[in-house]
Design a protein that fits this description.
Elements (H helix, E strand, L loop, with lengths): L3 E4 L18 H11 L3 E3 L8 H10 L3 E4 L1 E4 L6 H17 L4 E6 L23 H17 L3 E5 L9 H10 L4 E6 H6 L4 H8 L3 E6 L1 E2 L1 H10 L3 H6 L3 E2 L8 H10 L5 E4 L10 H18 L4
Parallel strand pairs: 1-2, 1-11, 2-3, 4-5, 5-6, 6-7, 7-8, 8-11
Antiparallel strand pairs: 9-10
Helix pairs in contact: 1-11, 3-4, 4-5, 5-7, 7-10
Amino acid sequence: MAVQLGINPLTWTNDDLPSLGAETPLETCLSEGKEAGFEGFELGNKFPREAGVLGPILNQHDLKLVSGWYSGRLLERSVEEEIAAVQPHLTLLRELGAKVMVFAEVSSCIHGEQQTPVHLRPRFPQDRWAEYGEKLTEFARYTQQQGVQIAYHHHMGTVIESAEDVDNLMTHTGDEVGLLLDTGHLTFAGENPLAVAQRWAARINHVHCKDVRADVLADVKNRKTSFLDAVLSGVFTVPGDGSVDYAPIMQLLKQHNYQGWLVVEAEQDPAVAHPLTYARLGYNNLSRLARDAGLL
């Protein structure tokens, strides 16, 4: 599969803060995303979760299902329990042709707690890396056998947020576990997304292109806000509209023959950041960056 450009419905509606874009129907998200130029969508809270229902809706808009977030709890559950829990989600992704599953460990996570400062996020228990790595690899091996590979999403407010966390995760897991590179979350965490990408380029199987407004990031860190309040303050934007230097990241992906999706995932308040305007800006900037690197 050649590189394709997709978008997450967070531009229109928000899963962690459902009041954002609550009134916006799925039809608007899909039609405007297609109008902006995107080829596919990740799942959101307004998407039907049965392939027989969602498939025809996506087909009507000539869109593909890119992937969808899955809240993993392997720190709390056995591999067998996780496999049982994932079945409906895995089935939907597989039946609609998605090749990767966005997986994040959400045990003790705080990114959805608006009153909790994000710097108080949980820390990964250091004595459990080897055990966790074995469990996640086994789980990923199972999903891979079903035709869908795990794309692990390091995320603010979770146990795997920093570059050190990502390094530990990749070191303790097998190649069955792919890495979702999220430029915005690494930047928010104070890390260099290019440096992380250079270390783990061979494992990257999904990319979230989320830019960061540096002045807003400095402000929300100074005020020690929650993740959701940082979003409401406008910390994130579409690629090319913030401080992330995308050109060398795109060049690195090209050097390593990246074949997956590039996804605009930039949660903002749709009442402030007009969704179609930002979807178009994101598509135009991302397609230019990808083309300049030879990815398109």
